[in-house]
Write a structure and sequence with these properties.
Blueprint: E1 12-16, H1 21-32, E2 36-41, H2 44-61, H3 63-67, E3 74-78, H4 84-98, E4 103-106, H5 121-149, E5 154-157, H6 173-181, H7 183-195
Parallel strand pairs: 1-2, 1-4, 2-3, 4-5
Length: 196
């Protein structure tokens, strides 16, 4: 289906925030490279719509492969990434459906353009819960699984260039802070691997 050097055939990729934006594009890239994919998003309907659209893109790109029965295996999962129990249940469902996970890419996130001096604490917490804690929860589930099964997996935590630059005129200090904070799950995952 794709160039051999970019082939992900036989791999299962999990993408959070995959119903739209960058998450959907990452899911499409994985599918175009031959991977199976779990489209994780807050709404099952949005996830199913994204799976349908990505499947149509793969079908258009590789009509011969699809005609030979090689349709992409993509499935949608509804999950609030800020809920530890929902992340754990979703992870278990993905493993039950696909049998394994090779790649986890966390793209679930929100941006909020509000001046720092006017930023409400509940909004601050919500942004950190989605953008940072959601990545941590999926990273932890993946790490536990890969360690237990002795699988060499790949974890990709999506952040923003706003973690390293000051974006003007947007007033998004909270978004910049949470983007920079995504380094913390990286350190956590590194520590998990060192412990093995």
């Amino acid at each position: 289906m794709t160039l051999p050097s970019f082939s992900l055939e036989g791999k299962t990729c999990v993408v959070t925030g995959a119903a739209r934006g960058l998450g959907k594009e990452f899911l499409a890239a994985f599918a175009l490279s031959g991977a199976k994919g779990a489209c994780v998003d807050l709404s099952l309907k949005s996830g199913e719509d994204a799976v349908k659209e990505v499947t149509e893109r793969v079908t258009a790109a590789f009509p011969t492969s699809v005609a030979e029965g090689q349709r992409p295996d993509l499935r949608a999962y509804a999950c609030d990434v800020t809920s530890e129990s929902q992340v754990q249940n979703t992870w278990a469902s993905i493993l039950a459906d696909f049998g394994k996970v090779d790649v986890v890419l966390t793209a679930a996130g929100v941006v909020d353009n509000v001046a720092a001096e006017e930023y409400a604490y509940d909004r601050w917490r919500k942004m950190f819960d989605i953008n940072l804690h959601g990545s941590f929860l999926f990273a932890r589930e993946a790490g536990k699984y890969w360690i237990r099964e002795k699988v060499k997996g790949n974890l990709i935590l999506v952040s923003s260039m706003s973690s390293m630059i000051c974006v003007r005129p947007q007033k998004q200090a909270a978004y910049n802070a949470v983007s920079f904070s995504l380094l913390l799950p990286c350190f956590f995952c590194f520590a998990l691997l060192i412990a093995c």
